[in-house]
Amino acid sequence: MTSLSLYTKIETLPPELKEEAKNFIEYLVEKTKKKKSESKIKKPVFGSLKGKIHLSEDFDAPLDEF
Fold first, then answer.
1. What gap in Å lies between CA 65 and CA 40, rounded to an integer?
2. How far apart are CA 66 and CA 55, in angstroms?
3. Of 31, 3, 9, whose CA–CA distance to 21 is shortest?
4. pLDDT, tens digit (0-9, with 9 covering 90-100), for 7-41
5. What are the C-alpha distances in Å from 18 to residues 5, 29, 61?
6. How many Å apart are CA 18 and CA 25, to the nearest integer?
7. CA dihedral of 19, 25, 30, 33, whole degrees rounded to 10
8. Are 30 and 38 in contact (CB under 8 A)?
9. How far is CA 40 from CA 33, 36, 43, in A?
């Protein structure tokens, strides 16, 4: 849908529906801004988990089941 056809359809609406359409468009713009700000994923810093993960001493030991 082109902007011109959208504008033409909006112009045919009564004033109260134009206001409702304007409010909905503003809602969509704000929703899009929130998604963009939330989608910025922070890259992990190398070594940021150092000291937070611990393996047992026998991690590499053979298992009895095999």
1. 46
2. 21
3. 9
4. 999 999 999 999 999 999 999 999 988 877 766 67
5. 15, 16, 72
6. 10
7. -160
8. no
9. 11, 7, 9
Structure tokens at 33: 């801004």
CA dihedral sign, ordered 13, 19, 20, 24: positive
> Is 0.70 topped by the overall pTM?
no
Planar angle of CA 24, 29, 33, nearest 5 degrees: 145
Backbone torsions φ then ψ of 50, nearest 5 degrees:
-60, 130
As given in the structure block, the two tokens for residue 1 are 């849908």
Which tokens belong to 31?
A: 């929703």
Count the Cβ atoms, other than its own, within 10 Å of residue 35: 9
